[in-house]
Amino acid sequence: MSEQRRAELAESLAEVRARIGAACADAGRDPGEVRLLAVTKTFPAADAALLAELGITDLAENRDQEAAAKARELSGLSIRWHMVGRMQRNKARSVARWAAEVQSVDSPRLAEALAKAVRAALDDGDRAQPLDVLVQASLDDAEGRGGCPLDELDALTEVVARSSELRLRGLMAVAPLGADPAPAFARLAAAAERTRREHPGATEVSAGMSGDLDVAIHHGSTCVRVGTALLGGRGLASL
Ligand SMILES: *Cc1c(COP(=O)(O)O)cnc(C)c1O
């Protein structure tokens, strides 16, 4: 069973790597510039463990409860867990104990809650490092999908950069639903360049999922977040 799943995952991983390689070749970029984040949400911890065995140790989740349980179960493996989903401030305390990076910081209030929670986790010995943060930019101003409006981005990146518990690493975004992702990723690239001028360490641009990672790489993505293309479909219940 697990041997079969392992072979399946190895095969889809090879396919995703080939797509990343081809997109980089097209864009004249070095594939070493593009991190692969496996989005393991809704899949069991056993799949996360197999991915780690296959060398994918950057894993992402979008719900605190599910992620905390997997991180606990796999605490013996050297996995870096990433939070990529919308989160409420009251989850900061828990997230600060399992996440190496949060990519979905979209308000100063959330940044402040995370900073406070990270401080407490550091003091308690529950984490050793500050929290890497990507600020999520909204590319379509649609309510409900998260993301900071582009005209509020500077103020938010400033709040993150000033915190000694948070490390501003860059920007993240999801393409608008049902629209051509290319212009949206171009807007993200421009915003990321502006951010980098103020904060030279903020070099990450997290963009691209199973359906649009090629376009995202063309527009400068340094981190693709891939679920379906690696692990299979999640069904309808779990966007
Ligand atoms: C689920 C999810 C992904 C992965 O999406 P796929 O289409 O399954 O590759 C990427 N980013 C975020 C924020 C997600 O919630």
What does this structure look like?
This protein has helices at 2-27, 45-53, 64-73, 92-98, 108-123, 153-162, 181-198, 213-218, 228-231, and strands at residues 35-39, 58-61, 80-83, 101-105, 131-136, 166-172, 204-206, 223-226. With 239 residues, it is of the alpha/beta class. It has a single domain, classed as Alpha-Beta Barrel (TIM Barrel), CATH 3.20.20. The protein has an 8-stranded parallel beta sheet with strand order 7-6-5-4-3-2-1-8. β1 (35-39), α2 (45-53) and β2 (58-61) form a beta-alpha-beta unit. The model has no long low-confidence stretch (mean pLDDT 95). The site of pyridoxal-5'-phosphate (PLP) has 14 residues, from β8 and α9. Pyridoxal-5'-phosphate binds next to β8 and α9.
Please write out the topology.
Blueprint (H helix, E strand, L loop, with lengths): L1 H26 L7 E5 L5 H9 L4 E4 L2 H10 L6 E4 L8 H7 L2 E5 L2 H16 L7 E6 L16 H10 L3 E7 L8 H18 L5 E3 L6 H6 L4 E4 L1 H4 L8
Helix pairs in contact: 1-2, 3-4, 4-5, 5-6
The structure holds pyridoxal-5'-phosphate.
Pyridoxal-5'-phosphate binds next to strand 8 and helix 9.
Taking the sheet with the most strands, its summary is:
8 strands, parallel
Oligomer: single chain
Q: Helical stretch count?
A: 9
Report the radius of gyration as a whole number of Å.
Answer: 17 Å
Number of domains: 1
SSE string:
HEHEHEHEHEHEHEHEH
CATH homology superfamily: Alanine racemase
Q: In the CATH hierarchy, what is the architecture at level 2?
A: Alpha-Beta Barrel
End-to-end separation? 26 Å
Keywords: Pyridoxal phosphate
Domain Alanine racemase N-terminal: 33-234
Modified residues (N6-(pyridoxal phosphate)lysine): 41
Organism: Amycolatopsis minnesotensis
